[in-house]
């Protein structure tokens, strides 16, 4: 049986007859590219994910318990100095790397291009999100007399635009040899009937598989091997859109070393019981971040003996790992969550359909789902005004306006201290 016939048998097995018809119409390079894609896709996995969209999420309350943390503001002088010294030693000795997840587009911001290329209107002249992160790393490099390797994860959709942008701006002065760009893995989009969507380029339409794909993408791209070659022992992973993100926080790093854990994270306390953020907890004895939609209301409102929310530590995408933890997470399959979204596609007549309502499922894994592979996590509570100013929405909360205000206030405070 030749390659095309094998692909047709596979497609028919999973009721993808519309792709069989497409394959028969294509010739030359287009046909070869579609065959390559069919070879690569795990159809059984996709159909299982599609079947899961019909099942209810079930959380058994008795398996959830609150989790401990240290409050950075309440550390004793001795504790803080001890942590800082431990963290500083690792960074100074070149055993620390940083990963920025930058696979998203700025669509929700009304920005045409990769999110990291969005310019935030700060101090009149403005700064790009990538530039703000670079400033943070450059400051750490100067302070600890090192050059931190910077790994930037793009998506297939925005990789070229990101590389072109960073080249054009000369990486904002960051040493180019210290920057590695790699792409995130993808999964097909599936409609409500279980049919894979076809894209304008006559291939199966795919989308990034969520920030949980960071681990396996680090391994598949060779970036993990590169880190090992460089003698990296600790890796920080954060998003591109938090303009107050501290990517080289020696207190967080030192706390993780002191507590002898493989993973650590910084949190901020929830603004109110019903803020739409994931919160840290323990489930079945393992660390977990539970999404706001999955936390029962009575638990969201529960307080401890000090009157603080029992489930009040928000996950702010500020995560730290040993290199071994990244390796472990890169080999473990993560749970996939489905999001029902509007996605355009090409119909059987070859016409583009732009839906008005959600029409298909996007499957994504979340970075924090890997926390469950570990027995413990060290959590450092930071402050919202010091650590968390995301740029997500065009207006309202977590918008350029709120991020600009938080960023400028933070730096005004820092400059007064100095």
Outline the structure in words.
The protein is of the alpha/beta class. It has a single domain, classed as Spore Coat Polysaccharide Biosynthesis Protein SpsA, Chain A (Alpha-Beta Complex), CATH 3.90.550.10. It is 34% helix and 20% strand. It is built from 14 helices and 20 strands. The strands form six sheets. An eight-stranded mixed sheet has the order 2-20-12-15-11-3-6-7, with helices on both faces. A three-stranded antiparallel sheet has the order 1-13-14, with no helix packed on it. Strands 9-19-16 form a three-stranded antiparallel sheet, covered by helices on one side. A hairpin with a 2-residue loop joins strand 13 and strand 14. The longest helix has 18 residues.
Can you describe this structure in just a few lines?
This protein has helices at 3-13, 17-25, 28-40, 43-52, 77-92, 129-144, 159-168, 214-220, 223-229, 250-259, 297-300, 323-331, 384-387, 400-417; strands spanning 64-65, 70-71, 96-101, 119-120, 127-128, 150-154, 179-183, 186-188, 190-191, 206-208, 234-239, 263-269, 279-283, 286-290, 313-322, 337-341, 345-346, 352-353, 360-364, 378-381. With 418 residues, the chain is α/β, with parallel strands linked by helices.
Percent range for helical residues?
25-40%
For the largest beta-sheet, the strand count, sense and barrel status come to:
8 strands, mixed
Poorly predicted spans: none
Mean pLDDT: 93
CATH H level: which superfamily?
Spore Coat Polysaccharide Biosynthesis Protein SpsA, Chain A
CATH architect. name: Alpha-Beta Complex
Gyration radius, rounded? 23 Å
Strand content: 15-25%
Distance between the ends? 73 Å
Query: How do the strands of the widest beta sheet line up side by side?
Result: 2-20-12-15-11-3-6-7
Count of individual domains: 1
- Report the total helices: 14
**What is the CATH topology assignment?**
Spore Coat Polysaccharide Biosynthesis Protein SpsA, Chain A
Broad shape: globular
Structural class: alpha/beta
